[in-house]
Design a protein that fits this description.
elongated; alpha/beta
Amino acid sequence: MEEPPAAEPDLPGHARGAPVAFGALIFGFGLAAGVLMAFSGYAVLQESASLVVTVFLAALFVVALVGSILFLLRRPITRRIYGAANAQMELFADPLSRVAESAIDGDPRAATSAARDLVRMTFARYAWLSTRRWIVASFTGLIAAMAALAGTALLFKQNELLAAQSVLLAEQNAKLQVQSGYLAQDVELSEAARNAQMAVEITEIAAALGEVLSRKAASDPELDQWVAAIPVLNPFTDLTPALIMRITSTSRAIKPYRFLDPPYRAHDTGDKLRVAMQPRRQELGKSYALMARNFDWRDPPETTALIDRPASPERAQLLQSLFRAGIREFELLNWFQLDLSFAYAHDTDLLGLSLQNGQLSFAEFDRSQIRGSDFRGAALENARFRNGVIEASLFSRLPGEDAKVPFREAGVSYPTLLAGADFSGAILTSVAFSEIQGGSVVFEGAVLDGATFDGAVLAAGTFRNAVLRNVEFTAADLRSVEFDGAFFLGPDPLAQLSTAAAPGTFRAERFEARPATAAEVMALAAPFRYFEGPELEDHAAAGTLWRLRRVQPFEAD
């Protein structure tokens, strides 16, 4: 039996060769794994896991088989290659001694033969050492590469799970947001339930007003039929102080809130037509699109949502009750702080009302018909009159001499506050806005025929895509007012605005005027409802139909 080999010295070449082979092997497997990951993806690796493991096990088996064969046949192989089967360190002494003896005896032939034997034994010795190191390095490299690939696979799997977790978290956040929305709806609807109790009080006020009407009719039988047809009450003579206080205190007790935006509007003729057209929308797509443009149809949201800001249907109901009961002049009620701000009065008729110095901030009168009404001195900041019709009404500053009792006072002036008020898509004819405080007021897409803005403050307001005819801006503050896309019927609008506006407030160089066509005007919803095509065509033919386009920014760098 062969004795166990003695401690073997490492040669520099072998010391470098084994790590190089080891590193090259690991690099090769790592490169193969990286290419597989990069171009095939983790899914392919996951699906081919059994094949990958089989390849690694086959490689290990090949290395083990080759190593076993080399180990079993190392003597015949070394004998055939190097002419020496054993190359233990103690066997090196014989050829070394023979080399020395031959050298001493002066026998070159014997010394050369002994040296040749020494070289053969040296090659045989270190060939086996290199082979053994290759076998160990191959085993180690394969195992390390398999461990690295497994770690990479686990890392990819972890990233995949983290990505899936991120998607689930995003879905969870979305659902939490929806839940938060529902919770907000619950809070707002709880406020609606509380305000619903105020509807009972409003009904009782309406009943008390009905009793007032009955007493007035009973006091003068000749007026019975007239009162029933067109009731008119005088708050000074027909309402008791107790009823006045009851009305005003109820208006202040009601609080605005957000409620579900109704998908259908029962009093909006255009919206009812939209709903009627829905069954034919697909087969009459072009006609539906044209009608939607002309009537400004808006599809309701897919899910029922809250209105965009707080409002109070109860205050609108109170206003309607007072109006239907015959109250036309609200000045006495306004004196006692009647609060109609945030009133949600869509599709409401306000005919011949006097609301001087009224509290109407954030009130909404969308699609309302307003005629012969007086809003002078009222607080109308951020009120909405969108898509309504306003005729022969007053929004101007209120001189104290023209104010009604109890606000009448010489030498006093009551400003009308219209900052942020929205008249988008409205039709306004013979409406006075003289000397209003209307910063950022909105008239986008509106029709203004015979309106006056003499001395009005309209800074940062907008008339984008509006149509203006016989509109006066004498001494008006037009700083940064937007006229982009606005149509003017009459002479050169830039010259007119430059001459009429307060000095230094309108910069004509920001805009350019060009001739417009009747079709451009009729493409807008409000002008389509108000103008006749031939009338606009006559203006276009006469060169009195213009459209402005802004060519410079308001705030230059």
